[in-house]
Amino acid sequence: MGHIVPWTDGTWTNQPVDVRSHAGGLHVTARQGSDAWRITSYGFIHSTEHALLTTLEPESALEVQFRLDYADQFDQAGIFVKVDDESWIKAGVEVSDGEASLGAVVTRGRSDWSLSPVPDWVGRLVTVRGSWSGDALTVRARVDDEPWRLVRVAPLDADADVTAGPYCCAPTRAGLTIHFTAWRTTAPDARLHPEV
């Protein structure tokens, strides 16, 4: 199962409205307008995400679990993996045009975004995993104990100084509270694809 990361180990990129420990988990209330994005399509730079980051060692992985109980436009939670202000990855579940979708934003100067609808995940526990091995971060996710789904393979320099942890944003509203239930580190994935 890996090593539990204490919530107190991380440092916030931007302080949320409220943070409360609860039964081993963490309730985080996001500020209205919080977001992470650089330039592409929208033309703006937002770096107001609430990401609780600590050092991610090379050849390791992090997993963050949270309850998918939010439904407003662009509500989002998952993992944030940061090299610097212009190089970062966020991955998790975001509400887009009325639908919960699993996806990732990979940013290297400019952001790109991919989404895949997961309407059957609503109301359940989601785990997002970022596995750093060699020159790549492999993002996988699952709901409850269902099989892992591959979300994204993104470049991540093997010698970079990386911080990572849980994050959330509420670009369009006040009052979003995410219930994070677990944060842990593990060994990285042994391979990208299962053996055939």
UniProtKB/TrEMBL annotation:
Top-rank lineage group of the source organism: Bacteria
Query: Which Pfam families does UniProt cross-reference here?
Result: DUF1349
Name under which the protein is recorded: DUF1349 domain-containing protein
Species of the source: Nocardioides potassii
